[in-house]
Structures are given as C-alpha cells and as structure tokens.
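> @MW can you paste both from yesterday?
MW: sure, first one:
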Amino acid sequence: MTQERTGVAAFKGSPITLIGPELKAGDPAPAFTVSKNLLEESTLSDYAGKIKLISVVPSLDTGVCDAQTRRFNSEAAGLGDNVVILTISMDLPFAQARWCGAADIDRVITLSDHKNASFGEAYGVLIKEFRLDMRSIFVIDKDDKLAYVEYLAEMSEHPDYDAAIAAVKALL
C-alpha cells in the first residue's frame, strides 16, 4: 500500500497530497530508476562513491525551477569531482535536453521521472493531484545515506540553497 501524506505541502496555498514516505537525514537513500533519455535509464547506483545533491523540481519550464537549476549549476564548479548534482523532474528527457541547451546548463545532470515515478514515490515527493514531483532537496553521502533533506511546504518557493551546499561541503 502506497503511503499518502496530506496537508504537508501546498501549491499556491491549496493543499496537495504527496505519495511516498517522509525521509529524514540518517535514513538510507532509497533506490530509484529514472530516464537519462528515451532509451537509457539511470539509478542511484550509477553514482556510487560520489556525494549526490538531488535537486527535485516540478518542471524546468517554470521560473523557480529554472532559477533553482541554474543556481546549482553555478555552485557545482566549486564542489569538485567527488560531487554530482542531479536535477530530477517529470519533464520528458528531450524537453530537459532542450532546456539545458537553451540555459547553458553543463554541470547538472537532468533526469526524468516521467515513466513510472520511481523517484517520486521512493522519496515521498510525487504529487497525487498533478503527477509532478514536489520541489525538494536531498544530499546523499558517498555511502548512500541521506545527509540532508528539505521538503518544501509551498511548491512555488525556493529551497534553502545555502543549507544544501553547506551539507555537501560538510561531506567533502
């Protein structure tokens, strides 16, 4: 049975339902399968041994999601080769590729959860009403343990960029 959490998040003030568990720092990072492109899949184990900052956005084609992805792309340069930044959304892979090209995104890896919402359900961010993933941030250490978790209460707000980057730097 899939867990539903109501009243913990909103879209422009209206409550939304999140599907999946509420994870906390210290929990093991759940496995997931997302799309790199239409033919290739990606999993958590593809980034084994790396510190992972996972930036979850509802859609790259919105203002806050655009700004969030650009911010982490610029932060990536100062974090070194031991860190990978993944942006996960429900956008189709070719839409992600188009957006990254237009936005000159070259350090963040975009991954799509559109096929079966594996990431959204495993990390408790799948929005039942919209079939989008709720804005959130997860920092996972090189041993695949959650070091930092931020679930936003309002879909249209920005995450705490400084806290997420500080969590990554604390693991270096």
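MW: second:
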Amino acid sequence: MKITTQLISIFMLFICISISTQAQNFLPGFNGFSKKKTSYLHMDNEEIVKGNLKKLKYEKGLIEEVKIKDLNDKKVKIKPNNIAFMYLPPSGLAKLANFNDFITDADQWNNDDLDQNLFKSGYAYFEKSDVRVKKKTKALMVQLVNPSFCEKIKVFQDPYAKKTASIGIGPLKAGGISKSYYVKKGTEVAIRLKKKNYEEEFKMFFGDCPTLIEKYGAKPKWSEFAKHIYEYTKECK
C-alpha cells in the first residue's frame, strides 16, 4: 500500500508538470523495440516494407542497419541509404521507462506529414539524416523528438546521452533531462549538441533570430532547449 501511494503521488506530479509544458516538450527517445509488433519502413522508392524486427545494427547508438522479417517471412537487411523514414514500436520496458512522457497532449506529435495514428499508438519515428559521428559523416536513421515544431531545426535522440537527476521508484523514474541531442538546422549535417556547450553554441543555432538572442542569449538554459526551438520555429523568420 505504501509503494502504491508513492507511485500515485509521483504520477500526479508528472501530470502537473506535463500540463504546463506539453506544447514545448520533446517526445521520449527509445532504446528498446518490440519484435512482436509490426514495424513500417518507407523506402526511397516509395515502397513500404512491413514486418517484425529481427535486429538493429548501431553506430554510436544510431541505427546503421535494420534486419526485418517481412510479411512473406523473408529476412531482409536494409541500410539507411535505401530508407526514407520508418516507424518502430517501442518495447514494453522502453515505454515503462518513459511512462511520464506519455501523459501528453496531441500537440506533441501534431504534424500532418507524419502518421498520427502510429504516433498515438506509441510508435517512434525515425528518418534518414547525414550525421557527424566524430570526424566522419554517415547516413543513419535517427529518432525525431520534435515532430510538431521541426520545420527549421530538427532534434534527434542521442541514445548515449546521460541524463540529469531524476526521481521515481525502480524503473518508474522520470524528470531527468537528456544532456545531449543530435541537432540538424535546415539541410545541414546533424551534429551532437551537449548541455555543457549549449551557452557557447546558442548563437550558432539561433543567431539569425535577434528576438531570441535578446530574450535568452545572455544565459540560455539547457532545460529550456525545447522551448527555444519551439519559439524559433513559430516566431523567427
């Protein structure tokens, strides 16, 4: 009974937090995916490959190859060079670990170019992007975490990101903020942006918006990164 009461208290706390920030949040990033639910791979040639995941191959935590069993029970290996975007179903444990991020408004994923039904079913959206990994640039599949305000700057999950302190019990921990993301401005190569470098790199991303620089430039807060992206998208030319 005591544990149940604690869980309810934490759950209600996150509801309050979510209601106040829902339009300016990043979607949760996932590191585990279901092999039982259907995955949807949209190819460059507009073909849609459906099937169950067998294995994902990674480069610094980012997907560089997808192994899937299609609807004909054929095992196929597909490289990002051939994939435009894809929807993957998170595993049950991955959803549990991000439980508070699901208490959210539809504005979080509102983008007419994306499949709203799959988002609402809890799927993660990945797209192909050139990403700078150390000194090399590679085409990889990266998870978009700001689909509703990504017109100018896209933010992708960094699976290796550490997080700030979180609260909770067991796997039901939340409140921590990722300390790094991969960020892509316009058609540029996505680069890794870290919390510790945010203040010095703020002007690199938002320097073409004097209003934002004047408002936040003196000491930009990493905890408001999503808010900065949102305002830049909505208010800056």
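> thanks! The two ends are 54 Å apart (CA to CA).
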